[in-house]
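Teaching soon. Invent one.


***
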Amino acid sequence: MIMNKEFILKLKNIGSVLLNSPARNPIFSVAFLFLIVLALGALIFYRYDILVKASQPKITAEAVQFEEELYRQILKEWQTRDERSGAVDSLKYIDPFQEKR
């Protein structure tokens, strides 16, 4: 039981030192945080810029071919949908705000 109390007191002392030292030295704390952010920024830059430029992308031998028949089917479907939507626009609806005669 005594050992547990001593351990808790040591943890409390270490915690207070760790939390109070940045408050006593704010310039060093800001400089340390700046260095951490700078290192993370350099790591991200290296990962997404330098590594991408260094590794060459794989070039596929196949060229993309335009499928004329598929294009015609899609165009035909679009035209039928356009005709159906045009039919809906031409309907005359009753105005609910107009007075009845």
Remarks:
- The chain has a mean pLDDT of 84.
